[in-house]
Design a protein that fits this description.
The protein contains four helices and four strands; from the N terminus they run E-E-E-H-H-H-E-H. By secondary structure, the protein is an alpha/beta fold. It has a four-stranded parallel β-sheet with strand order 1-4-2-3, covered by helices on one side.
């Protein structure tokens, strides 16, 4: 099971291993407060894609396609997440305000599709 949560939400029971999937450290959050397994900067959208998207919901579909293409081109970035998800629940942490239109939502769907291909 793969969960997606904002870094500003308190940890919940059953979240499993927690991974920050942002390129930039979230504002106002102490490093020890997140109870992280790892910070995976390279799995986040490229700086150029992040700036282009700017969390504009009207660009959501194009953002999903572009970010998925970036993930396809960089399997080394998401493989640790896939391996962790094979072993148990994981949580992808993000800092965006929009809970529906953020890169962690796309990453979750991407990883779930990979697991489904494996028959999990």
């Amino acid at each position: 099971m793969i969960h997606v949560r904002r870094v500003y939400d308190p940890p919940a029971a059953g979240e499993g291993r927690r991974f920050l999937v942002e390129r930039l450290w979230p504002r106002g959050v102490r490093r020890d407060a997140l109870q992280l397994t790892a910070w995976l900067k390279e799995v986040a959208p490229s700086p150029a894609l992040r700036r282009w998207f700017a969390h504009d919901p009207e660009k959501w579909e194009a953002f999903c396609q572009r970010y998925t293409a970036e993930l396809d081109a960089n399997p080394a970035a998401w493989q640790p997440l896939l391996e962790a998800a094979r072993q148990g629940p994981i949580t992808l942490l993000y800092s965006a305000r929009d809970r529906e239109h953020n890169s962690a939502v796309v990453l979750k769907a991407y990883l779930q599709a990979k697991l489904k291909q494996e028959g999990r």
